[in-house]
Amino acid sequence: MPHYFSTQPTTDPSNTHSKGSTDAHTNNLIGLSIISFPLFVLLGIITYKKSRVAVYRRRIAFLEKIWLMDVKNNTYRQD
Fold first, then answer.
1. Which residues cross the membrane (predicted)?
2. Which domain holds residue 44?
3. Can you tell me the mean pLDDT for 22-51?
């Protein structure tokens, strides 16, 4: 039986393919992080401001109720 020898260097195709796939996966994660981080910060700021406005309005409503109370009778005034 004849033996065939090759002098060309061979590379394992599974190693090169998996490396490229890993790099692409890493790049996708980095890109997603770059895009999502500012969005989460912006949504956090908007949510915080809305919650502060809601608390402020509740405090005003409570103070208006106290202001309209008659201290002696502990009832609300009817103007």
1. 29-48
2. 23-76
3. 93
CA atoms within 13 A on the CB side of 6: 4
Chain centroid to Cα 6, Å, comes to 55
Contact of 77 with 68, CB cutoff 8 Å: yes
Number of domains in the chain: 1
CB atoms within 10 A of CB 69: 13
Judge whether residue 12 has pLDDT over 60: no
- What single string gives the DSSP state of each residue in 24-62? HHHHHHHHHHHHHHHHHHHHHHHHHHHHHHHHHHHHHHH
Please report, in angstroms and rounded to a whole number, the separation of the first and last CA atoms in the chain: 115
The answer to whether residue 13 sits within a structural domain is no
- Does any domain span residue 50? yes
Residue type at 36 in one-letter notation: S
